[in-house]
Amino acid sequence: PSSIASTSVTSAKIQVNGVHLHYQQTGEGSHAVLLLPGMLGSGQTDFGPQLKSMNKQLFTIIAWDPRGYGQSIPPSRDFPLDFFERDAKDAVDLMQALKFKKFSLLGWSDGGITALIAAAKYPTIIHKLVVWGANASVTQEDVRIYNGIRDVSKWSEKVKKPLEEMYGHKYFAKTCEAWVDGISRFAEKSDGNICQELLPDIKCPTFIIHGQKDPLVPQAHAEYIHKHIKGSR
């Protein structure tokens, strides 16, 4: 029976910082790992393979939906200047509410940025860190790339379909436009900074992955993060 229990995925909500956050949980290992999805993403849309295939004996795996994403609606998603910091606090507080004292972070894209901030701000709580498709600043070139995905009707069917099914077309389209506006605001600062000054504060073992064909995040971002996190690989 226990082997069946350990491979099943629980889906639940818990109140954190005044919002009801949805998460999925599986596995029974001693090493707790939080999976952080990308822009508009959720546990279901971004981490199906990980929830299914990660080692359930070694790991306890949690995938969360940040506020306004996935099934963590309401509230509707908004993008104040500190939305990454807000997500980082929500993520850590969610894990603490679930009684995990120490855990690792696997963050993709926006979830990678959130994970970098969390690892820097909560060094005693974060065990290890893996990020891919993340960036610590926003350049004018990045803004040009983001504007290329502003209109979701131009997205490929494959990428669009799961998100449209989850959100409905209207919320999906509106939130994507709001994200482009929100992320582009960082480029208005002289250095385009999101979290560059926090990278030296990251003390845990860190692994940075980057897709050579990543259409949204130029590789220089991954190289910058690697250079500024001491001992990262």
Structure report:
With 233 residues, this protein is an alpha/beta fold. The protein has a domain at 14-138 and 194-228: Rossmann fold, CATH 3.40.50. Helices cover 37% and strands 19% of the residues. It has nine helices and seven strands, in the order αβββααβαβαβαααβα. The chain has a seven-stranded mixed β-sheet. Strand 1 (10-16) and strand 2 form a beta hairpin. The protein is globular and about 45 Å long. The mean pLDDT is 96. This is Valacyclovir hydrolase. Residues 32-145 form the AB hydrolase-1 domain. It comes from Eurypyga helias (Sunbittern). Keywords: Hydrolase. GO terms for molecular function: serine hydrolase activity.
